[in-house]
Design a protein that fits this description.
The chain is of the alpha+beta class. The protein has one domain (3-402): Cytochrome P450 (Cytochrome p450), CATH 1.10.630.10. The protein has helices at residues 21-28, 48-56, 80-83, 94-105, 110-134, 140-145, 147-157, 164-174, 182-205, 211-221, 228-259, 261-269, 274-284, 317-320, 355-372, and strands at residues 31-35, 41-45, 138-139, 292-295, 300-302, 305-307, 312-315, 377-378, 400-402. It has a four-stranded mixed beta sheet. A hairpin with a 2-residue loop joins β5 (300-302) and β6 (305-307). α11 (228-259) packs across α12. It starts with 20 loop residues before the first helix and ends with a strand.
């Protein structure tokens, strides 16, 4: 494959299929050059070992506006996540970033997520009840996939879930690649930042036991703690990541498991496979989005090639997750696969802090649907599903189902 013909995002036959180009890139051109929607060029990695190694290297971090890195979005349409231009930002590098991760990470332990599980299950059951009462066909994303993670992350942050429509618009603008204009993005960012600043000020005045309140209280007890800007950026970042990506993954997981009825039937016959099925859905997801970008501040050797300092690298985790060198039968969905060291949450010093939360939500949703709606099926062919367009993250616009 001539890598100069490579343009991201790569085309697929359906929203759940991998791009045909991945296999050839892994075999013949593991360090490719790809054109981004902005017109800039980046290095594109598709092999598991290369992606894992680069993401694990603390020297290489997410690009910011100051780096002069390759831009993802065309001029005037990129949100803060695409451009690195947020008005307030989480510390992105070195010890300040690791200190932030330690503070916030204490709230996202597997033990704490287990304690939240019964409440998530009750919420999932209530949402499924409402969907069943409305009748088929229904949009599983709108009925369950979107509201469940929104309610959960709002509860964790102590913000009202009633504002979820605004959160959705703000999140999409934050993640925009080509969906919004510069004016729309600037307006949304001002509104989002002001909203979270008011919320942080209220927490300062009267701390509560949610995540932001705990960060404030712990910081005061330690004689320091995060600044208001860091708290605002933390709230904004977690609100976007805590509902957008999980809502998308719930829809894609349902599509993968219902698109091939034998997968759903196997889970009905053996619900003990829910945990491994969730992990395999995360590995098998080909519609994750652009992947993670890293800016090389110095030369790096990748797959025997020297990639020069100043390069921007796009690490395609979903392509790496289909690498036969790392996963036997990589192009088959094995619901009992173990171990499953997929890279859906990244790896290393910048891996997803909320992965225990996401896993718990996905497991709860799958358990609830298997138990409450065993006859669930897609209401359209897999080819009729529509991909979310114009954002850094991948997803389905809706997941039509019947039972």
């Amino acid at each position: 494959m001539a890598d100069q013909d490579l343009r991201l995002p790569l085309p697929t036959d359906t929203p759940l299929d991998p791009p045909a180009a991945w296999a050839e890139l892994r075999a013949r051109c593991p360090v490719a050059h790809a054109t981004l929607p902005s017109g800039d060029t980046a290095v594109y990695l598709t092999r598991y070992d290369d992606v894992r190694t680069l993401l694990s290297d603390p020297r290489f971090v997410r690009p910011t506006e100051r780096d002069g890195a390759a831009r993802v979005a065309p001029e005037g349409s990129g949100g803060a996540a695409a451009t690195g231009s947020a008005a307030v930002a989480i510390p992105g590098r070195g010890e300040p970033h690791q200190r932030w991760r330690r503070r916030v990470g204490k709230y996202f332990t597997a033990k704490r997520m287990t304690a939240l599980r019964p409440g998530m299950t009750r919420l999932a059951e209530d949402l499924v009840d409402a969907m069943l009462a409305q009748g088929a066909p229904a949009d599983l994303r709108a009925s369950l996939g979107f509201p469940l993670p929104v309610h959960v992350i709002c509860d964790l942050l102590g913000v009202p879930a009633e504002d979820r429509d605004r959160f959705s618009r703000w999140s999409d603008s934050f993640l925009s690649v080509t969906r919004y204009t510069a004016e729309e993005i600037a307006t949304a960012q001002r509104e989002f930042t002001a909203y979270m600043a008011r919320h942080v000020a209220a927490k300062r005045a009267r701390p509560t036991d949610d995540l932001l309140g705990t960060l404030i209280t712990d910081g005061e007890e330690e004689g320091g703690g995060p600044t208001d800007d860091e708290l605002v950026a933390t709230g904004m970042g977690l609100l976007v990541a805590g509902h957008e990506t999980t809502a998308n993954m719930i829809g894609k997981m349902a599509g993968l498991l219902l698109g091939d009825r034998s997968r759903w039937e196997r889970l009905l016959a053996d619900p003990s496979l829910v945990r491994t099925a969730v992990e395999e859905s995360l590995r098998f997801d080909a519609n994750l989005g652009f992947g993670l970008r890293r800016y090389l501040g110095e030369d790096a050797e990748i797959a025997g090639q020297v990639v020069p300092a100043g390069s921007t690298v796009v690490c395609s985790m979903p392509a790496a997750n289909r690498d036969e060198r790392a996963f036997t039968g990589a192009d088959a969905m094995d619901l009992a696969r173990t171990p499953n060291p997929h890279l859906a949450f990244g790896v290393g010093p910048h891996s997803c802090l909320g992965q225990a939360l996401a896993r718990t939500e996905l497991q709860v949703v799958l358990e609830t649907l298997l138990r409450r709606v065993p006859t669930l099926r897609l209401a359209v062919p897999v080819a009729g599903l529509r991909k979310t367009e114009g954002l850094l993250v991948g997803g389905l616009r809706e997941v039509p189902v019947r039972w």
